[in-house]
Amino acid sequence: MSDFKLHDQGSAPQEAKPLLEKSQKAFGMVPSLHAIMAEAPGVLQAYQELHQLFLETSFDNDETTVVWQTINVEHACHYCVPAHTGIAKSMKVSDDIIDALRDETPLPSEKLEALRTFTLAVVRKRGEVNREDLDAFHAAGYEHRHVLEVVLGLSQKVLSNYINHIAETPIDEPFKKFEWKKS
User: What phi and psi values does residue 40 have, to the nearest 5 degrees?
Assistant: First the structure.
């Protein structure tokens, strides 16, 4: 069992308090992940900023979800898969896409499948993708910008997935109904 503290306004380091307040305003609660990250305020700040920057990429909501959940599922993140299922539903992503990502079954479009395939290549090859990986991604309609934005999404997810594994982050109540285990 993990002994990482779930911080609140009373226990968090001073520098983390405004960051927790920002999380509260954004999500209507302080997600457990943020409560753990508050121990190291720079980590929480980086995560919040990466999250916002990734939301501002050229990806639409379906594509954003494909990148996030592809990485979450590949990393078998017990916390992020349920959390991003809830987030995807709030972003009006179809259940067909959500379920295909969680179950690792084919996505409903070739373009989204190409995005998942490329994202997996970046994760599994630690960024050392080859010409064929890039050509297939570009053939699906993606550009160099999208390659870089996948890496941005991966940066955010490495922070959260790894911390969740180490800290055994408890799933937040609103997301417990989306609990998940890698098959």
Answer: -120, 90
The pair of structure tokens assigned to 126 is: 């630690």
For range 150-170, the mean pLDDT: 98
| pLDDT, position 1 | 61
Domains of the chain with bracketed CATH = 14-178 (1.20.1290.10)
3-state secondary structure of 101: helix
Count how many residues are written for the chain: 183
Query: Under the phi-then-psi rule, with left for phi > 0, alpha for psi from -120 to 50, and beta for the rest, what region is 13?
Result: beta
Contacts with 9 (C-beta within 8 Å, 6 or more apart), sequence order: 17, 20, 21
Distance separating alpha carbons of residues 20 and 155, to the nearest angstrom? 21
Q: Residue 183's pLDDT is what?
A: 84
**pTM, entire model:** 0.96
Q: Which two tokens stand for residue 93?
A: 């992503």
What three-state secondary structure class fits 73?
Answer: helix
| Tokens 């990806």, residue located | 59
Mean pLDDT of 43-62: 98
What are residue 68's phi and psi, to 5 degrees? -60, -55
